Backbone:
């Protein structure tokens, strides 16, 4: 499936291929922190990527209400 030059780059360790099946795996690989799983309380665990995203979205939401 891969071109010969890509295979050679992988052999030389110039390029890496990471098989994933879910977006959360890619988030963890790319950002170096666990993505996080939604908890029953509607929040994500502390120190996860999705918790940081959730926090920032909450901040933006609150800021948007101030401008009205």
Residues:
């Amino acid at each position: 499936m891969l071109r010969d030059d890509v295979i050679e780059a992988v052999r030389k360790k110039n390029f890496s291929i990471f098989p994933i099946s879910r977006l959360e795996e890619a988030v963890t690989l790319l950002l170096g922190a666990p993505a996080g799983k939604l908890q029953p309380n509607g929040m994500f665990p502390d120190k996860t990527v999705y918790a940081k995203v959730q926090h920032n979205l909450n901040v933006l939401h609150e800021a948007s209400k101030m401008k009205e």
